[in-house]
Each structure stands twice: as structure tokens, then as C-alpha cells.
Amino acid sequence: MNVLPFGERALLVELPTGAHTRALHAELLRRRAAGTLPPVTDIVPAARTVLLDGLADPQALARALPTWDVPPFTPGASGAVEIPVRYDGPDLADVAALWGVPPAEAVHLHATTEFTVAFCGFAPGFAYLTGLPEDRAVPRRATPRTAVPAGSVALAGPYTGVYPGASPGGWQLIGTTDTVLWDPDRDPAALLTPGTRVRFTPVGPAA
Q1: 175 has which bridge partners?
Q2: I need a labelling partner for 28 at 20 to 30 A (CA). Which of 9, 85, 97, 125 fits?
Q3: Does residue 65 surpass a pLDDT of 90?
Q4: 43 with 84: CB under 8 angstroms?
Q5: pLDDT at 205
Q6: Do residues 168 and 145 touch, judged by C-beta distance below 8 A?
């Protein structure tokens, strides 16, 4: 763990792995809920960092953080968000080939995995989901697409994600969903937030 000052009232905590990051983020939320964490405005996880903003005394927390006993991350007990997916993406066959299985088996492997939101970014409502084994990581496309439709279910590296709106993108597209990931009129606007459990449910014919 490396704790760095980040402006006058914030800290940036660098962690060695994504698993350490998820564990520290969960511990920070537990301590805030229990009232044992100093007041903080925002706790923002990323791939291997956690930002704490709005601290009255950042240095005191910076000294304390390395002494914490942080248990491994375990998914919450609340039910998983289910996202229905048509596994009709143009890159499904390529992903299946990388995995060394037929497309139907690739669908089964993805749909029987329970994912967890590690962090959010890239676009409002875009969540980086972990859960696939390391040997299922896939590269980004060599040439990104200039337009990816909203609702595209995609893979890149160790992550699964769903494009909340149309945008350019270089992830491997394996399916589509009608689920609304980002709605400014909803509270919260983002359907998926860090720590949320997610399952993808196949609908319609598999490609």
C-alpha cells in the first residue's frame, strides 16, 4: 500500500492488485457505515487505486491506513442485478476461438459467471466487472470501432462491461441488452456501482 497526498484534502491509495483494491474499498465503506472512518466526501475506487476526498485531516488517515487489518473482499449478501443479454455480438466467435471453445460454450461460460463491479469510469454508468478466470482475459480489438451501440456487452482484458450509451470503443462485443445502465432521472442514476453483484441471463438464440 502506498498512500499519497492528493491536493489539500484528499489521499490517493495505490494497491498492488485489483483484489487488494476491492478489499480496501469494502473496508472503507464498512468503517464509514460504522462511524469509525473520519468524515470523507467521496471514496472512489479504480483498477489499483482508491481516492479519498474531502478529508479534514488527510495526514492522520495516511498514517493510519497502512496499519489496518484489511480482510479479503467478499461479495455482499444482497441479490445480484440480472441483466438479460442477447449473445449476438459480432466478436463472439473471435472470443470463443481465443477461449478454445465453440460460441455456444463461450455463452455458457460467460452467463454462468457471477461478476462484481470493481470500479466505474470511461463513461457515466460504465462499470468494470470482474469474475472471469485469468485465462479468459481477451485483448482489445487492434482497431477500435468508431461507434459501439448502447447496450453492447463487451470484454477487454479481465473485464466485462456494458456500454451505457453509443460511443467509440475497442472492446470485444459479445452481446446486447436493453437494460438501461445510466438514467439521470433515476436515483441512483447508475444501475451498477462498485461492489454490486451482476449476472447475465441469455435471452433469444445464442450466436
Answers
A1: 153
A2: 125
A3: yes
A4: no
A5: 53
A6: yes
Distances (CA, A) of 198 to 75, 125, 187: 10, 14, 19
Task: Give ∠ CA 199-154-85 in degrees, rounded to 5.
Answer: 45
Domains of the chain by start residue, with CATH:
2-67 (3.30.1360.40), 81-202 (2.40.100.10)
Grid cell locating 95: 472470443
Provide the CA 149 distance to its chain's centre, in angstroms. Answer: 19
Residue with grid cell 456500454, as numbered in its chain = 163
Could you give the CA distance from residue 94 to residue 102 in angstroms, rounded to a whole number? 10
Question: 201 near 113, Cβ under 8 Å?
Answer: no
- DSSP collapsed to 3 states, the chain: CEEEECCCCEEEEECCCHHHHHHHHHHHHHHHHHCCCCCCCEEEECCCEEEEECCCCHHHHHHHHHHCCCCCCCCCCCCCEEEEEECCCCCHHHHHHHHCCCHHHHHHHHHCCCEEEEEECCCCCCEEEECCCHHHCECCCCCCEEEECCCEEEEEECEEEECCCCEEECCEEEEECCCCCECCCCCCCECCCCCCEEEEEECCCCC
Cα distances (angstroms) measured from residue 93 to each of 85, 120, 144: 16, 27, 17
